[in-house]
Amino acid sequence: MTAKIYLEGGGDSKDLHILCRQGFRQLMESAGFSGRMPRFVSCGGRDAVYDDFKTAHEQSNADYVAMLIDSEDPLDDQERTWDHLRRRDNREQPDGSDDRQVLFMATCMETWIVSDRDTLRQHYGHNLQESALPPLDNLEQRSRQEVQESLKRATRRCQNAYRKGKRSFEVLGKLDPATLETHLAAFRRTKRILNEKLQ
């Protein structure tokens, strides 16, 4: 089984693309995918992810091709991913593709990060202002702006205050998959689909 997952993240920097892949790889290794790891491809922005995914879906000889992206907005239905992309981004579903080829971070990668309070405490130390973080219930229904701003506020007194890029991928790789599964339906779905596909 060969698999490729196209990632949103990394901007235009080669170094950040490497860190992006490393962060997701570490998280998926912790989630039990060692020995059957997909190839992660960091694409930068959302448009680039879609274009690269579409090309790979049409041309790649991989058994499974997917993209892992922010949903940007809360999901009405976790399983109807192409409906969400059609409504929100005006994206056409490539011929022969299906909903299991779109894996969402709902609503953004920071939602995954704020769900794991133990890792945040360990990573940021005593200057973390945990009260600035959103409640854990219904995290995936909160806007990406709310989640991202809360994480910036909670870490603003920390030496390694949260920023997109190198620092975001560092903390991503340390997250506990069991905690993410507890709080995030989109992460549970991603893990379920990858378990089905990565035999």
At a glance:
The protein has 199 residues and is an alpha/beta fold.
Largest sheet: 4 strands, parallel
> Class by helix and strand content?
alpha/beta
Radius of gyration: 16 Å
Beta-strand proportion: 5-15%
Please, how many domains? 2
Widest sheet, order of strands: 2-1-3-4
Distance between the termini: 7 Å
- Average residue-wise pLDDT: 96
Low-confidence stretches: none
Principal-axes shape call: globular
The helical percent reads: 40-55%
SSE succession = EHEHEHEHHHHHH
The beta-strand count equals 4
Give the helix tally.
Answer: 9
Description:
The protein has about 200 residues and is an alpha/beta fold. It folds into two domains: about 5-110 and about 175-195, no CATH class; about 110-165, no CATH class. Helices cover about 50% and strands about 10% of the residues. It has helices at about 15-35, 45-60, 80-90, 110-115, 115-125, 145-155, 165-170, 175-185, 185-195, and strands at about 5, 40, 65-70, 100-105. It has a four-stranded parallel β-sheet, sandwiched between helices. It is globular, with a radius of gyration of 16 Å. InterPro entries: DUF4276. This is DUF4276 family protein. Pfam families: DUF4276 (PF14103).
